[in-house]
Amino acid sequence: MKPVNEDFLRILSQYQGIIHKVNLIYFRTLEDKKDNFQEVIYQLWKSFPSLKDGSKIGSWIYAVAINVSISKIRKDSKYVFTDAIPEIPHTDNIDKLEHDLDFRHLLDAIHHFNKTDKSIMLLYLEEYSYSEIAEIIGISASHVGVKIHRLIGRLQKLLKDK
User: Fold this and answer.
1) Domain total for the chain?
2) To 5 degrees, how large is the angle CA 33–CA 159–CA 36?
3) Vertex 24 angle, CA 18 and 27, to 5°
4) How confident is the model at residue 113, as a pLDDT?
5) Which pLDDT tens digit goes with each residue over 101-157?
6) Band (5; pLDDT cuts 50, 70, 90)
7) Which domain holds residue 147?
8) Sign of the Cα pseudo-torsion (100, 118, 9, 75, in order)
9) Cα Dmax for the chain
10) DSSP one-letter code for 128
């Protein structure tokens, strides 16, 4: 039987891109992204023993990363939110993504969304199903569908204005 540390490190190595993507959506500065990354890892480690369904590791990491990010934003008063979409490429090179102009426009547009809408759009772009998004966010699948439809319209308008 493998030690828990090895299992956790293996999972973290395989899925750390999720944390980076959540950080891209919620934070703009490198310092904030690094701080949040560390806090997400800490919270994942604390909750790792309670992970029961090994087939939903990605959903678990998204849920923890999103909740930690939202908590950080609530604590930090410096964050203020106001109310053809490029796909988020699946890559391990997050730094390169941040310099891609189309991706930068998409991130800038998503930064206008509130914290829940950011989470929904990120999971949608990651091709999670409505029911999976609903489970992670804590709303009904039909409400997810309505929100995604509205968010796509807002994104298209924001991107058209660029």
Assistant:
1) 1
2) 10
3) 125
4) 92
5) 777 888 888 988 998 999 999 899 889 999 999 999 999 999 999 999 999 999 988
6) confident
7) 4-83+85-160
8) positive
9) 56
10) -
73-76-82 Cα angle (round to 5): 55
Calpha distance 24→159 (Å, rounded): 17
Q: Provide the sign of the torsion angle of the four alpha carbons 107, 110, 116, 122, taken in this order.
A: negative
Q: Give first-to-last CA distance, the chain, whole Å.
A: 54
Structure token digits, residue 41? 């890892």
Q: In the prediction, which pLDDT does 96 show?
A: 55
d(CA 116, CA 110): 11
Question: DSSP string of 13-77?
Answer: HHHHHHHHHHHHHH--SHHHHHHHHHHHHHHHHHHGGG---GGGHHHHHHHHHHHHHHHHHHH-T
